[in-house]
Amino acid sequence: MQQKDMDFSRILISALRGGAGKTILSIGITAAWKTLGKNVTPFKKGPDYIDAGWLALAAGRPCHNLDTFLIDTKHILQSFLRHSGNNDIAVIEGNRGLYDGIDIQGSTSTAELAKLLQAPVVLCIDCTKSTRTMAAAVLGCMQFDPGVDIKGVILNRVAGSRHEQILRTSIEHHCNLPVLGAVPKLGKQNFPERHMGLIPTQEHAWAQESIDAAAQLAVKYLDLDALAEIARQAPNLGSEASGLKTEAGIQYPVTPLKRDLHFAPTGSQHSAPRIGIIKDSAFQFYYPENIEALVDAGAKTVFISPLTRDTIPTVDALYIGGGFPETHAEQLSANVTFRAQLKLLAQDGLPIYAECGGLMYLGEELVLDEKSYPMAGVLPVVFGFSKKPQGHGYTIVVVKEKNPYFEVGAELRGHEFHYSRVLQWRGAAKDLVFGMKRGTGFIDNKDGVRYKNVLATYTHLHALGSPAWAESMVRNALSYKNKIVGTIL
User: Fold this and answer.
1) Is 124 a catalytic site residue?
2) Residue range of the domain that includes 406
3) Within this chain, do residues 21 and 170 fall inside the same structural domain, yes or no?
4) Which one from 63, 127, 141, 356 is the annotated catalytic residue?
5) pLDDT digits 0-9 by tens, 41-64
6) Residue ending a domain, choose from 174, 208, 232
């Protein structure tokens, strides 16, 4: 079903706090609607890869992130419209509590996103050891900001029928809101967790079984028809977004990302630069928009894994995202051929951009439980691990040193979340190109390790918030490609 006049069915699932169960409910609602034949587009509020991966698996299509700290509101709205254009319904999962933001005004909160998208909100509330007080909490959320359109409540972790009845009666009486479902306390854990939350789908052998279980939970305990009706009643978004184009009755944003790039000729054809992306269960943290941006900027993407192959195919640049190299340290270390080739390519000037887990892989060693695992050895650094986060939250970096990717003086917004830490660093101060305006970074309030055409950082960037990134990746790839072609000729 195509949406007309920007009348997009949409619903936002939020909560009073993190850990209340909104992720599993969002996954369950998405999967259940998909099973019923609806074309569902998932979105995740906040800088999140893992929950987004589960939502993508539940929907059978990519989940895009909507984060008003990383991306300006115009591009948030445009991204939502662009990716919702041909769906039946959009499910947006919030993060943390509804009003939690980075300041007293609630900037970057789920509530602010809900108002931007004019999305009706359904609150998931953890009812453990509480009854009538939940009505007070919900009423407080309704009155805290009347501009947030709270349309209903889902009760989670209900102890029994009597508990549910008291909760339901209290909320419907005092808040005049419908209770759209009541989920009991569940004994079986279908979604295993690690320190960053849920284990990513790539590492969970029973991921589809977990999705199916969540869908069954939604069908059994939630009023899916009422939820769908709330989504259908979402108001027309109007035409606040600039740069909209109407085609076949659908309005969507035109994002002219394709650049006039001058590809090196190959015979009578012009060929796009090949950018390799190391993507597997060890390196899995990629925003879909980042990969889309590389393609829109003129690149051809090639997916590679050191867990499944010994050599790197012919590429003109590499992008190594974050993930959990520590859980795959033995396999990564054992692939000596891949590591050696990666180091030689870096020495030859291959453009390589790495984030977090990719940064760790480019180092000399990972030390886990007093055992050392050799890595690629591109950067003079040894990493270890802590039981507590070493960097967690939004970052703002200022480009202080020359590098192949960003202009000196540029300010970039990103995020970091890592338990790894630097044990040994034998580089020079000039090799660290970012100064930390907000966040922890690599070492000494700096981030962004540079070696030749390599730049590796703990800070994750989103392409919609940092458009220079994709442009520079393709520009550097073309430069390297032309150098290789010139050498051959």
Assistant:
1) no
2) 269-488
3) yes
4) 356
5) 999 998 889 899 999 999 999 999
6) 232
